[in-house]
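Field reference: sequence -> structure
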Amino acid sequence: MDHAVQYVDGQIHTNGLENFWSLLKRCIGGTYVSVEPFHLFRYPDEQAWRYNHRKDDSGEPMNDGQRFDIAVRQIVGKRLTWDRLTGKADGEPLEAA
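Structure field:
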């Protein structure tokens, strides 16, 4: 979008993306502090998940407990070992989902 011409074109605007990157930078600089290159793709993935789960289906804001409940329901039956997480496992490397 060319800001010299316009800032909004219907539902298309840059504010949402700017907000997302601001939250991601704040998270990396404040929460994680030390970012490992091996896991670099996971930080934007986590932030995208948080950003997409800001509100429930009815449009009401979600709290941390509600987001945690959704995350826990999605990991049932899945197993991630320490060796696979750190890239030390024999076999296939862990890839971005």
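Note: The longest strand covers residues 8-9.
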